[in-house]
Structures are given as structure tokens and as C-alpha cells.
Amino acid sequence: MSRLVIDSPGTLPDWVFPWPAFRMEYSRCALMVIDYQNYSVNPACGLSRLVIDRHPEIARYYVPRIREVTIPNTVRLLQAFRQASREVIFTRNGGLLPGGRDLIPRRRRRDAEALDAAGAPTLWSVGTFEHRIIDELSPLPGELVIDKNSSSPFNSTGIDQLLRNLGIECLFLTGMATDMCVENTARDASDRGFNVVVVEDAVATFVPEHHAAALSALARVYTQVWSTADVLGWLTAKGLEQ
To answer: Are the beta carbons of 189 and 224 closer than 8 angstroms?
Structure first.
């Protein structure tokens, strides 16, 4: 049975169909760190700054969740995967060209409207400080960093072929945001035959109910949902078997 760990209302009810069941192969697993960028999780800039300034009721949940729970847990996972010599893959979301002119028209319109309304876009382009991965989770030399201009990297990059070239079959997902880029990536990866685990306490979004709803939907059909402790215990046990 799929493990489901949700820290907010909306836990998964009984489900008539089989839960997603698969074996995670230690030698073919990778950690994916999705969009932990300055614009999304650095409280000094970008979207986080706007949420703090304009929606303090959301920020009271979101900022501690990111700073005190999901980033520290992602650090722990990074350390464990690196120590186990497993692949680590990062994604960054935003325009590949200055001003984001390569984004789909709807996204460009949304950024223009956000700029008018709030003085800042909702995405930033490659090369900007906001687009960079936060310092706490900086990739190491030799780790794959994939720039995407869509929610899921499977829709705007060659990640499918890259994962297959690397021999990866199993993905542990962390990152931002649970109900957006994480969910889209998880669904796309599952539909392409990858085995996917979403690490509940290493992903976040702005509203706890949206977080719970996204994980519930994924756990019904597409993925398993584990805690950081589950993943670390699995890595240790599998590593000892090798």
C-alpha cells in the first residue's frame, strides 16, 4: 500500500481501486529538486517577498513551512543521496530568454499583469538572481541542472531522454510547489513509466489544503507519498544490502 503522510486536513479516504504499487530500485533511483529558486523561497525577494508584504495570512503558514521544514529536509535528502552516490537532478523554472519571450503567451500575459498589479513578475529569466537555486541547496559540480520554461520539465526539456541515458527509473521528488510544478512533474513522470515518490515534508505550496489535495490526488493513481524519514530509512537499508 502507498504510504501517505499529510500534515493538514484532507487525508486520503478509503479508495476502491488499487493503490500505486512498485519497487524502488536503489541502483536506478535519483533525487529531483524542483524549483527551489530565490524567487519562490527566498523571503528577501521575488514571489516570497510579495506574499510576505501583501498576504501576511498566507506568509504565516508558507514561510515557516519552507524555511523550517522543507528546505532543511531537502538538505538532509541531498546529503544522503550524495553520500550514497545516487544521482541528484535540479530544475529551474523561468524564461530561457531575457524577458521571458520564450514562454507561452498565456504565461507572458500573466507576468505582464503581475508586473502591473504588484510591480514584479511571477517568473524570472535565466541569469537573474531570482532564477538561481537558493544557496542552501546549491548544486555540486557534476550534478544535472535543467532549465525549463514550463511547469513540468517533461514538456519543455529533454529530461525524459536524459533520465533514460542515466539509467534512472525511480524519482524521489522534492521542491516547489506541491500543487503546481511538483504535481505536474510527478504526473508526467508516472505517465512515462517512471516510478515516483513525492516526499511530503520536502515539498510545499502556499495553502495547506492545496498541498493535501495535490498529494491525495497523486497517491490515488500516480505516485507514492513518503516522508523524509521514510526515504532516509530506505536509502540506509538499501545501501547496507549492496
So the answer is: no
